Amino acid sequence: MGSSFTRQTSSLLENLGPQPLHIVMLGLDAAGKTTVLFRIKFDQYCNAVPTVGFNCEKVKLTSGKAKGTSFVIWDVGGQEKLRPLWKSYTRNTDGIVFVVDSVDAERMEEARIELIRTARSSENSGVPVLVIANKQDLPGAKDPSEIEKLLSLHELSPNHLWHVQPACAITGDGLSEALEKLYEMVQKKKKTSKSTLKRRR
Ligand code: G3D
Ligand code: MG
Q1: DSSP reduced 3-state for 35
Q2: Domain at 154, CATH number
Q3: Are residues 65 and 184 in contact, defined by beta-carbon separation less than 8 angstroms?
Q4: 133 marked as binding residue
C-alpha cells in the first residue's frame, strides 16, 4: 500500500509540473527593479512609481534551457527605511536578484554593503545571487567586471554561486540571459545540496 501511495503521489507531482522558483529582487531605490520586473512580465517598458511595499509577478519562460519553468518574483522596495524588511522576503528563497544602477558611482559602496550583508546572512547562506548591472544604455555605465570588483563579489565564500549580467530594463536587453543564468545557478545549487544530504546519510 505504501508503494502505491508513493507512486500516486509522485505521478500527481509530475502532473503538477515543475514547482515555480521563488526569487527575491533587491537593490537600492531607483536601481530599476520594478522596471526589470514589468519588462520581464509584460515584455514592454512600463514607467514605475517608487515601490512602497512590494510587487509580485509570476512569469513562465517560453524558451531557452528554463523553458516551462515559472518564476515567482518578489520586487521589494529599496529605500533605506524599507531595507530591514528584506529578510522577511528572502526566507526560503531559491535565488536573489540584486539590481544595481551601473552609473550610480556614488552609491555603489552602499549597494555593496547591502548586497554583502544580504548574501552573507545565515538564512541566505549559499543562495545564488544574480547581479543585474542595469542601465547599460547610459553613458559611463560600468561594465560587469568593474561592478564585480566594486561589489566585492569575490569576497563571498568560494561555493557561493553568483553572476553579473549587464542589462537595460528599458529595452529588455540582457534580461532573458539573466533569467537563464539564474535558473542554471538554482539548479546547480539544488544538485549540490542533494548530493551533500546523501553523503551525510
Ligand atoms: P526601483 O524599482 O529599483 O526603485 P524603478 O527603480 O524601476 O522605479 O526605476 C527608477 C528609474 O530608473 C525610472 O526612471 C526608470 O525608468 C529608470 N530606469 C530603470 N531601468 C533603466 C535602464 O535600464 N536604463 C535607463 N536609462 N533608465 C532606467 P524615472 O525617471 O521614472 O525615475
Ligand atoms: Mg520599485
Answers
A1: helix
A2: 3.40.50.300
A3: yes
A4: no
Q: Which atom of ligand 1 is nearest to the CA of 169?
A: 23
Evaluate whether 98 touches 132 at the Cβ level (below 8 Å).
Answer: yes
Alpha-carbon distance of 55 to 68, in angstroms, equals: 22
Question: How far is it, in rounded angstroms, from Cα 2 to Cα 135?
Answer: 55
Residue 177 grid cell? 540571459
pTM for the predicted model, two decimal places: 0.90
Annotated ligand binding at 92? The verdict is: no
The band of 5, judged by pLDDT with boundaries at 50, 70 and 90, is: low
Q: Is residue 8 part of a domain?
A: no
| Grid cell at residue 139 | 553613458
Q: Could you give the number of structural domains in the chain?
A: 1
Checking DSSP bridges between strand 21-26 and strand 95-101, what pairing results, if any? parallel
